[in-house]
Amino acid sequence: MLQRRKSVTPLPAAEHGRHASPRSCQLPGPERLVGLGFRYWMLGRQTGDIAAWERCWNLYCGVFGVCGARLAVGALSSWVGAVGGASRRGIEVAPFASRDFCRDECIAVSMIAACQHNTCPALRACAFALVETSLIDHVVGEAQTFADTMGGLDQRLSSGSIVAVPLLDGAAGDRLH
Fold first, then answer.
1. How many Cα atoms within 13 Å fall on the side-chain side of residue 48?
2. Residue 37 is part of which domain span?
3. Alpha-carbon distance values, 94 to 21, 97, 133, 158 (Å)
4. Distance separating alpha carbons of residues 85 and 43, to the nearest angstrom
5. Are 143 and 124 in contact (CB under 8 A)?
6. Where are the alpha helices (DSSP H) in 14-158?
């Protein structure tokens, strides 16, 4: 049986990596876990700084225990790698210590929620908005694997976390609280 802790709070750290302006979008439980995992893994990928990956590992271990973290981080790594590899632009993430999430992080969370709620049109729209190419099949497949893994670890995202991507560019992007 996997040990789980409910608390999901980031550890303080210095800012580095490619950052975006955060929105005042604060995410609850499972959404926050997905958003932070995406942030930390993408920062590690962009900077090569092992501290980012360690932060993700420690966060997921604290929630899932070592066995669960191994599964979740493996699926997260594959998904973030697919996003980074397919993207036609630099994926933006907020600084380590930011409590808010930027547009790309919110789209990533929306992708995973769309996977868990079988909303294919929203999933594909999010994938397209994130990587800005029509070659999204690999990204979508890896997102589904990560979403299934998180669901198997009792991390079910709310259907309210699925947003229309154009809304994230306007004031309605603040729906993700």
1. 0
2. 29-175
3. 7, 8, 23, 22
4. 14
5. no
6. 29-47, 50-86, 103-116, 120-131, 137-152
Give the per-residue pLDDT at 168.
55
* DSSP 3-state of 158: coil
Domain count for the chain:
1
**Residue 47: both structure tokens together:** 């900077």
19 DSSP assignment: B
Task: Give every CB contact of residue 54 below 8 A, 6+ residues apart in sequence.
Answer: none
d(CA 60, CA 70) in angstroms, rounded, equals: 8
Cβ–Cβ < 8 Å for 104, 111: no
Task: Compute φ and ψ for 13, nearest 5 degrees.
Answer: -160, 165
Q: What is the pLDDT of residue 25?
A: 59
Token code pair at residue 154: 């009792």
Copy the structure tokens of residue 5.
């802790």
Q: Which residues contact 164 (CB under 8 A, 6 or more apart)?
A: 122, 125
Residue of 162, 71, 78, 175 lying closest to 117 (CA atoms): 162
Regarding predicted confidence, which is higher, 93 or 168?
A: 93
Which tokens hold the place of 76? 């997260």
Whether 62 is covered by a domain: the verdict is yes
The structure's pTM equals: 0.81
Structure tokens at 158: 């709310």
